[in-house]
Amino acid sequence: MDLVRRDMAEPGLPVERDPGPAAPTESPRAQGAARIALVMALTALGLWILREFLPALAWAVVLAIALGPLYDRAERRLPRDRHNLLLPGLATLLVALVFLAPLVVLAVQAAREAHDVIAFTRTAQREGIPAPDVLAHLPFGAAQAQAWWTDTLGHPEAASDLLHRFDTGRAAGLSRNLGREVVHRAVLFGFSLVALFFLFRDRDVVRRQALTACNRLFGPRGERVGRQMVASVHGTVDGLVLVGLGEGVLLGLVYYFAGVPHPVLFGAFTAVAAMIPFGAPVAFGLAALLVLAQGQTVAALVIVGAGLVVTFVADHFVRPVLIGGTTKLPFLWVLLGILGGVESFGLLGLFVGPAVMAALVLLWRDFTNGPERVG
Fold this sequence. Notes:
Shape: elongated
């Protein structure tokens, strides 16, 4: 080849030699750094694109993990159809009904109460707002309290002035913002259901890929951390959701016999509040105040006493066993994870906070005591 090029070259010009195979221009280390930078950039870009839907995706993952044991039982009893659509669709539909049914009942009840609110407003503008019976049963200052109420709100002019202070324009703006927020939440809830359907349908593939990714990225310890976080979600569901529902049922019965108005709704509100630490006292405290406003002091004391007993047993005996026993996590860290999670992520933090605390405590135990198998 060099002879051919030498023959073809013009006289007096330098002969160009063949450089041979091209040498690599970049080192493997530089290529690895570029690959990592590209992955991080694409991940950041993907998270930014999905930023509005990340809570919905997180809820779908939490629901898929929490309902995993129940779905496994149903899958063993019901054979899969050809395209694996029936069972995931039924499971997703049941989840939607569980969340939507209380909202429908609440909306119907609110629509019924709206008529009473309108009637109360018209009566207050025409006759004033009568003093509640609880003022007459105060241990001291009953006469002064009744006199103040009569002078301030007991006559039509004062009540009408108080009601007219409510800015109708601001109320209209609040209604528009509330409607926009409801539509936004409904869209996110629908997206969560769609994601939950695909997680149910492809749960075996997702589980296998997640374990493979944990092993490749972090080794066997990564898989253990992932399993510990899943166990913390199960423990949180058992210790918060199920125990909260139990508290709501028990206190709902107390509300019914104590004469609390709308005991079913107050029981449902208590169940939701009981899922948050120190939330149940707020619920049964409001119920006691409503009964006390009707002049039923003994019934109010019964509600407070029953609420304190139920919450004491649940918080000090039942929840530590369910949550701490599942996650091998001291209840103090569970409590801190729940409170910090709610402060940072809202209701979703009920599950994210304990999961993060469980992973951190497991890593700390591995670091200080060596790897220890968690059953």
